[in-house]
């Protein structure tokens, strides 16, 4: 039933202008028509999207809000580091990164936070 439905991840942000600049200028996303005031929608293909929704009192989430599939995690990490993004490193049971990248069965991933403290991920499918 939902296989052809449009999917939009909604990320709460405390300062909409700051967040818009981060997603547009730092991550390189293109804004589309926002479905409601106090929000910004980014959609590259018109089918999936990421919507920033102004919520001044919302706390940043410690859980991953969205993950971007990329062809090469290391290259994407280097490019975003060049734009000022700081990536996380983890050394936990079942989650250990080396140079910011987790290697697991069938995937590689790296995590960072947006301008509002929300956790985002880059992931690469490897098999």
TrEMBL record:
Residues 3-125 form the VOC domain. Pfam families: Glyoxalase (PF00903). PROSITE patterns: VOC. This is VOC family protein.
């Amino acid at each position: 039933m939902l296989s052809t439905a449009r999917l939009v991840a909604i990320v709460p942000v405390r300062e909409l202008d700051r967040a818009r600049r981060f997603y547009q200028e730092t991550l390189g996303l293109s804004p589309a028509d926002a479905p409601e005031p106090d929000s910004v929608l980014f959609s590259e293909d018109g089918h999936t999207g990421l919507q920033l929704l102004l919520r001044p009192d919302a706390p940043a989430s410690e859980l991953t809000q969205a993950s971007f599939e990329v062809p090469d995690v290391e290259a994407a990490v280097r490019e975003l580091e060049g734009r000022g993004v700081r990536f996380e490193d983890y050394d936990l049971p079942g989650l250990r990164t080396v140079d910011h990248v987790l290697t697991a069965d069938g995937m590689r991933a790296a995590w960072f936070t947006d301008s509002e403290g929300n956790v985002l991920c880059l992931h690469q499918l490897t098999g």
